[in-house]
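Appendix B. Raw example, untouched.
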Amino acid sequence: MKTLWRRWESYWFQPAPLFTLAVCRLLIVGLQLFKLLHHNWHAEFADHATLSDALFHPLPVLRLLTLPLGWAGPRSLVAGLWNYRPALATLDICYWGTVMAGLFAFIGVWTNRSLGLFALGNMLMVAYLYSFGDFHHPEAIMMIALTVLAFGPAGGALSVDDLRRRLSQVVRRHRFESRPVLEARSEFARWPLLVIQWVCALIYLSCAMSKLHHGGFAWMNGQTLQYYLMEDGLRWNKPLGIWLSHHHTLVAALSWVTVLFEGTFFLAVIFPWLAWLYVPAGLAFHYGIYVTMDAAFFQLMMIYCVFVPWATAACQAAARLQSWGWAKPVEIFYDGRCPLCMRSMAALETFDWFQRLTFSDLETQWPRLAAGHPEVSLEACRQDMHVLLSDGALQKGFFAYREILKVLPPLWPLLILFYAPLASTVGPRLYGWIAARRVKNEPCTLQVCATHHHDAQASAPSR
């Protein structure tokens, strides 16, 4: 029994990369945010607001979410609590609050709380629309995925929360310790992805069982699918669907493929290597439904991202690019006794998603740098940050940061500023102004900082 429990615990709580969970957060939240901002929710709410109360049958989840508002309603106790109908202004406030929570969840500010509010806001809006009897499939899996992510360490990487944790660790420990994003792991990073995977598998299995329960094997004779292809093709003006409905043999084969795909999708969860077969097949399956029947399952297609080992893929991509000579590493030499420098290294490492940067403390790596570049002094390295490129070239200050940005894809938009007109003239002066005033503007928090700096000056080689 203990062995079985350990296997069960190991299955759900085996340490997994936080990077993979964070990428899934970005993709899932990003798609739902796009859907919220792209769709005219106010117009849809306004249309439903004109419908009669007789058509409004609130779903249990809507009754639960609006329970606090129902207490303040003007109706009777039962009607106010259990049949509360949100006003248009209330729905608009919910919409913009949900959008704000989604933006915070995307960039990773108070990630878990933001994800929870984002999920609840989406639930309330969707449940309100469904309370008029118009149901659709894709939204349910998205609500479940957002809720599950809210209970996991989805902000453990690729987030503002992670950046703040790294900076606080530098201040607390009085030193910078490299912690590559791709190597950060947690025993709680695996279970949210597994739960979402199993939900997908159960949804597909339910679809297959429903087809077999209501139609038996006769559902795969092709005639049922032909009917729906013709009906939706004519309704939504889908020429491909109309054309396909005239080819019975092909449609019959697709019927069998559909049931087999839905009925065996759970194997991709039990045997993860099968995901490389089922995920592309599922993407093609749903895209085919969209172009022939105008049934959009983009949310479910995006949730396929939970089957992809993003951390492993990023490591392999970085290794492959380096072997091709396209992604050469950059070594940063920083002052390990400067709080601002150490926090800068922590911030840069947060965006080093492909392990392109290596960090070397001048206190321990200065002899190696001096041997390769005798023209550089230790004092100059303390004054301006230096980076060593793969070809042996050395850059400092403003130009060092420009080289660093080139290998950090998340920060590529900043290159516009670093290559703007006059940037090569103004940039070094601005960097020098900040570097010269870093001690004055931000007193060192290390008790030994001033002593170390004095010792470093004394030990610096004469020029």
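End of appendix B.
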